[in-house]
Amino acid sequence: MQIVPFDDRDGFIWKNGKLLPWREAKLHVMSHGLHYGSSVFEGERAYNGKIFKSREHSARLHRSGELLGFKVPYTIDQLEAAKTEVLKANGVSNAYVRAFAWRGSEKMAISAANTTIHVAIATWEMPTYFAAELKAKGLDLCWADYKRPSPETAPSEAKAAGLYMICTISKHKAEASGFHDALMLDYRGFVAEATGANFFMVVDGELHTPKPDCFLNGITRMTVIDLAKKRGIKVVERHIKPEDLVNAQEAFLTGTAAEITPIGTIGDYKFVPAAVTQQLIADYEALTRA
């Protein structure tokens, strides 16, 4: 399969207040965000031309910037208008939307308080992230070597580029070993999340999920919790030990790209996508495509 690189595509990207031809939306190699990870981003999806929970994502982009010590220089309303503009310019309706902000190139050092904060928004067509037959069977996961860090050592509430370095390493190792993803523990040894999605498991009809006290409390995660409660499904947010997985009958991941994707195996633990997972998938599809 031929890969189309993301720097050589047709279309438009919104950057610092105006639309640019896709190939002209560039940054300098000496940008602080590239060298020091001073960048935050959002992953969003548009269904039938409408971005799901768009304002929540824009608000989180602002919050992530604050946690990294900078202010996103566009209001939430301005970001909302820009997203609409870039979707229309690219003529896409079922799409992925990437809004992001980063420190510029005025300084190349740890201290970079006076650098310009740049903002860009890109969007492109995005089909289902995982094939239907794979979602029916469930993903095969291994255990990641790296752990999610303590909130005393990293701004874990931020959707910050630098926090994903260990995720990329773990994902690549999983794929090289024949798995689809890796499940990460936190610094205490509790189950945390996959490399880019939150984790849920079903125990005797109840929905159990790790407490997001050292990793991102995903917008899709919160949506699924609300959907479960509306169905009368008890939701338990707690610290989950790896050995607790033996009590689960179903398990799945949630995220903007993954939506709700069942898990088939995690190491030696096996799960079957069944009633609770299937109901939540149906409810999520109905909500996002309403």
CATH class of the largest domain, anyone? Alpha Beta
DSSP helix count?
7
- Structural domains: how many: 2
CATH topology of the largest domain: D-amino Acid Aminotransferase, Chain A, domain 2
**SSE run:** EEHEEHHEEHEHEEEEHEEEEH
How much of the sequence lies in strands comes to: 25-35%
Biggest sheet record: 9 strands, mixed
Helix and strand arrangement:
Layout: E1 12-15, E2 18-21, H1 32-36, E3 39-47, E4 50-51, H2 54-67, H3 76-90, E5 95-103, E6 117-125, H4 132-137, E7 139-148, H5 165-176, E8 181-186, E9 191-194, E10 198-203, E11 206-210, H6 219-230, E12 235-238, E13 250-255, E14 259-266, E15 269-270, H7 275-288
Parallel strand pairs: 7-8, 7-14, 11-12
Antiparallel strand pairs: 1-2, 1-6, 3-4, 3-5, 5-6, 8-9, 10-11, 10-13, 13-14, 14-15
Helix pairs in contact: 2-3
Task: Kindly describe this structure.
The protein is an alpha+beta fold. The protein contains seven helices and 15 strands. The protein has helices at residues 32-36, 54-67, 76-90, 132-137, 165-176, 219-230, 275-288; strands at residues 12-15, 18-21, 39-47, 50-51, 95-103, 117-125, 139-148, 181-186, 191-194, 198-203, 206-210, 235-238, 250-255, 259-266, 269-270. Strands 7, 8, 9, 10, 11, 12, 13, 14 and 15 form a nine-stranded mixed β-sheet that branches. Strands 2-1-6-5-3-4 form a six-stranded antiparallel β-sheet.
Keywords:
D-amino Acid Aminotransferase, Chain A, domain 2, 2 domains, alpha+beta, D-amino Acid Aminotransferase, Chain A, domain 1, 290 residues, 6-stranded antiparallel beta sheet
